[in-house]
Every structure is written in structure tokens, then in C-alpha cells.
Design brief:
This protein is mainly alpha-helical. The chain has two domains: about 70 residues, Orthogonal Bundle (434 Repressor (Amino-terminal Domain)); about 50 residues. Helices cover about 75% and strands about 0% of the residues. The chain contains six helices and no strands. α2 crosses α3. The N and C termini lie far apart (about 85 Å). The model has no long low-confidence stretch (mean pLDDT about 90).
């Protein structure tokens, strides 16, 4: 069993990776540093505390941790694929719009040059 299988251990590893101390965690949770140590072996953490950890880490701990396993992993992958498809469609639309804008700008320049040359004659 991977030590990061427990939510508390996963959070502890993320905190350590970001250099966040138990004292900082204790202040954020309004608990003692000793109590912080009791959180790390837990498999489940109260949602209120989980939200504080998300704020401290500046990441979505819930999705990062639970998104590694089924069924959430499949759901997230499906949503990611749908988002990527939509993004590709939007990128293609932007390319078409850019080409059209370039064409219109060229026409405007051509018309302006033609207008200037008519004035000179």
C-alpha cells in the first residue's frame, strides 16, 4: 500500500513539497501543531479542513487526490477530452476569424490606396 493512499499523508507530502510548516497549518486551522500531526495518518479529513488545505496549497486537493482513482478519474478524463475538443473547435474558429480579418484589412488598404491614387489624378 502506497503511503500516499491516505488523504492525510497525501496532504502532508504536498505541504512539505511547498515548504509549508506544521505551525503554519496549525495557525490556518486554528489548532495546535500537535493536533496537526494527528491529521496526517487519517484516511478522511473534514471538508472544512480540506478547504483550508486547498487554500494553503493553492491547489484543489480534492480533485488532485480523488481524481487519481475511479470513478472520478474516468469522469475527469471524459470532461478533459470534451474540453480539449471544444478548445480545438474554438482554435479553428479563431484561425478562420484571423484570416477573415486579415483579408478585410488588406481590402481596406487596397481601397485606401485606390482612393488616394484617384485623388492625385
Amino acid at each position: 500500500m502506497d503511503e500516499l493512499d491516505d488523504l492525510g499523508r497525501y496532504i502532508q507530502s504536498r505541504l512539505r513539497a511547498k515548504g509549508i510548516t506544521d505551525l503554519q497549518v496549525a495557525k490556518a486551522l486554528n489548532i495546535s501543531p500537535k493536533t496537526v500531526q494527528k491529521i496526517y495518518p487519517l484516511k478522511d479529513i473534514y471538508s472544512e479542513r480540506l478547504s483550508v488545505f486547498c487554500e494553503l496549497l493553492e491547489e484543489n486537493v480534492f480533485l488532485d487526490y480523488y481524481g487519481r482513482s475511479e470513478p472520478l478519474k474516468s469522469i475527469l478524463n471524459k470532461e478533459l477530452k470534451e474540453a480539449q475538443k471544444l478548445l480545438k473547435t474554438k482554435d479553428e474558429l479563431l484561425d478562420i476569424q484571423r484570416k477573415y480579418i486579415n483579408k478585410l484589412e488588406a481590402e481596406v488598404q487596397d481601397n485606401a490606396l485606390a482612393h488616394r491614387s484617384k485623388k492625385k489624378k
